[in-house]
Task: inverse folding
């Protein structure tokens, strides 16, 4: 269930419980059973809102990401910035075949060419921050929007990029 929908349902359910309890007791204090049910319901909804998936949804939503497609768009933008950096860009310069740009922890990226060769780059400054942001987005997407059979269980993920075309998230 979508976490925002669950929270809304919890609030509506809580209001219904309060109204029913007031109607039954004639507007007076609610019965101990109703209070217990209300407390159990609130506890259940708090637990549902604090699952890793719900937290990941909230954090991604705060960044304007509502799904895997939104994440791919943001990641593609970050990837284009990184690929314009001199060292990383030189590794793919002039090549027309697809490659993978892996986002690794600590502001590092790796470029894996079609022939399987992989080269790791340790970025500095703003580029390192962008790479770390991409890594964090991918980690949250893997939790919030899992894809069957995708990902290797390793930290981070990759963008499969085709020069002059789009990209797809491999996480």
Result:
């Amino acid at each position: 269930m979508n976490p925002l929908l669950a929270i809304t349902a919890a609030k509506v359910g809580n209001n219904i419980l309060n109204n029913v309890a007031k109607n039954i007791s004639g507007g007076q204090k609610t019965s101990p059973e109703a209070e217990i049910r209300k407390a159990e319901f609130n506890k259940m909804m708090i637990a549902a809102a604090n699952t890793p998936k719900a937290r990941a949804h909230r954090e991604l939503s705060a960044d304007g990401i509502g799904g895997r497609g939104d994440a791919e768009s943001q990641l593609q933008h970050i990837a284009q910035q990184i690929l314009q950096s001199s060292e990383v860009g030189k590794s793919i310069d002039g090549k027309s075949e697809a490659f993978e740009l892996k986002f690794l922890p600590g502001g590092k990226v790796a470029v894996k060419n079609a022939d399987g060769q992989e080269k790791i780059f340790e970025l500095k400054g703003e580029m390192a921050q962008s790479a770390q942001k991409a890594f964090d987005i991918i980690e949250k997407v893997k939790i919030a929007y899992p894809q069957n059979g995708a990902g290797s269980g390793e930290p981070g993920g990759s963008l499969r990029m085709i020069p002059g075309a789009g990209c797809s998230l491999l996480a």
User: Anything to note?
Assistant: The mean pLDDT is 82. The helical segments are 3-24, 32-49, 52-62, 68-83, 86-92, 125-144.
